[in-house]
């Protein structure tokens, strides 16, 4: 009986002692950077999702190592963030303490998984050694004009007097006290990601990423082509600029809508309307952008009392405010064309505003359709201009060009590309994050903290219980430190940075192994970046994966890195469900790996996860399914217990072995571990009764080793010790053998350092081959012969073929031409 518990412990200790997974980043001749998104150090045990996400890529890494690659596969902890802070609020335990405990605990659990991480190259984003670089990055962004401060809205609970993260607002209410959350303006720090919108979009073309993810990024960046147009305000010298994707509909713009927060609202609203306008603005403060833009909701708004002039028709049109127009998009102002825009249509119907049709659908046979004024919806697609003076008769695309030229000529508008992407708000009114390295002089002007003061330490004398303000405001030490360094009356920035800043460059810092002097070594960066394979959940399609690309591009511009893109190839792991449902604490259907690992061992658990389906598809958990893998492992063990034979019985095993090497190799290359395991099971079925010779046994164990590393190491020891087999035994199947030659232990080599076996295609061919038989160059028959038949035998078989005989009858063969493995041609006298 195979004892997984003892064996796994034994090899984990042996690998660690021999530093099997450590190597010199500077020396690797054939580097491959395989990175799996690092976890948040949670207090709970590693769950099935962790096991799935980390153990399967680990098998892939083991496979690549055996193929001769020097694989860098580091692991660290994304340790800042809300959960540790919330835990501190509840328990009073400082986040630094609980995080450190969790990290230590998780490393132990990872070790039990038997993964190849080199822990000497780990990192923790909440350590001062790491966050000094998060702060350094902020300073670089600031220096290059990519970090700036402006007022932005935050979710605010007036009862708890605190800023809330999005996930703390449930249906617009505070998760703690259920008070309605309002949007409160606060000055905050931003990174200017919008400057990179075009590059972020174009760069996607060249990435080997899932198409769906690229599409999500494209939508998130949201490129719109259109125009900006200026509308004069009646009786005022000012004007309103709108952004539109349909400048061709300008003649149909019958009113203007401003976002309620638009700065011009105050200046254009006549006294008599101020009351209604303010009441409306106050109401809107309770709504999030998502609620405001919900297409199904009833449109609301109020008239400001002001008029603008439509530059095309020169008519006076009313200026309204309405919450369906967002201040954060375009110019925060729209020209409303109710005949051709759904939202404007609904709004116009609600408030009885004029609708003017300016685009006609392409003609559909005889008769003219009903006018849009009387129809039930806006006509929003392309067509032909009507009621539009000099645009009449033009198709939408032509009309757009003509009107933009007209606007440019009159200097009241121009072509404009607009992105939906917003600048990245990096300020958090939270404790557990990297302090933003900025101080304010007594006049309130911000100054970046000189680099020599980094790391700008996160103070520890803070109050975790919510007090209504940024927790850092309560640190005496923080204020005193600032005054001591910068002078009386100077105060530090009290906000910390979004944790997505920490994870936007961690792939670079892994290469530096904690170096405190240099952000990145250009040689190492050139050698290892971009990451060859990045693995993580599809939920990161937008934020993290866009931020990391943005920061890499910025660092490239600053001259620190040689490429623009951090992740060459990306794959997402699938989801493990339980009876079809997502596992979650609230459903109470979370599978804990521990009981299974204790009972069957980590190899069996890992292989069972693999066996569920292709890695990118995930699978459905079943308690009983794991037993099938356990049986397979015990059968393999018994087979090796029986001992190894001198010779294999028969060519069929040899052929199956080569076929299996091919199948397992290709399956692992494509992350289809499920079918790789199935192929090994099939092989086991074939050899179980007959037994294996040494060579076959070795190859079988090599194939098994990425997936069941501990078991394979144990079996390898069984068949390699003593007497050791000469390496040449394996060379027969084409494998260059073995030995990395680096790690030896008492003359024996770990299987993790062996080479991956190769197959010989000749064994994949069938036993027989088809020979064409010709007489004087004309095909007369096809014969199937054994591949190993002699030439004479093949000629004899050809002569014996009944159809050939009828042609040969009474003729004299003057020549026999034989093309090896292909044809026999008899030349005869006619
Ligand atoms: C006039 C018009 C006529 C429009 C028409 C559409 C159809 P995308 O594609 O998303 O970029 N818009 C502009 N700024 C807005 C804001 N801050 N909040 C809400 N809506 C805004 O959409 C651009 C269109 O959305 C713009 O083109 C504008 O309405 C509206 F037949 O202008 B359009």
Low-confidence stretches: 366-370, 722-747
Sheet/helix structural class: alpha+beta
What best-fitting shape do the alpha-carbon axes yield? globular
- The helical percent reads 25-40%
Number of strands: 31
Strand content range: 15-25%
Count up the helices: 27
Small molecules bound: ligand ANZ
How far apart are the termini? 75 Å
Largest sheet: 7 strands, mixed
Radius of gyration: 36 Å
Overall mean pLDDT score? 90
Topology:
Blueprint: H1 4-17, E1 31-36, H2 48-66, E2 70-72, H3 82-91, H4 95-113, H5 128-143, E3 147-157, E4 162-164, E5 169-170, E6 173-174, E7 182-191, H6 197-203, H7 211-221, E8 223-233, E9 239-244, E10 255-258, H8 264-268, H9 271-284, H10 289-293, E11 301-309, E12 316-322, E13 333-336, H11 342-351, E14 359-360, E15 384-385, H12 396-409, E16 413-419, E17 424-425, E18 427-428, E19 438-440, E20 446-448, H13 476-486, E21 491-492, E22 496-497, H14 499-502, H15 506-509, H16 522-528, E23 533-536, H17 543-558, E24 570-572, E25 575-578, E26 581-582, H18 593-600, H19 602-611, E27 618-621, H20 625-641, H21 651-669, H22 673-687, H23 694-704, H24 709-720, H25 728-731, E28 768-775, E29 778-786, H26 791-800, H27 802-808, E30 813-819, E31 823-828
Parallel strand pairs: 1-2, 1-23, 10-12, 23-24, 25-27, 28-31
Antiparallel strand pairs: 3-4, 3-7, 5-6, 7-17, 8-9, 8-11, 8-16, 10-13, 11-12, 14-15, 18-22, 19-20, 19-21, 25-26, 28-29, 30-31
Bound molecules: ligand ANZ.
Ligand ANZ binds at residues 224, 243-246, 249, 259, 325-326, 329-330, 332, 334-335, 337, 340-341, 418.
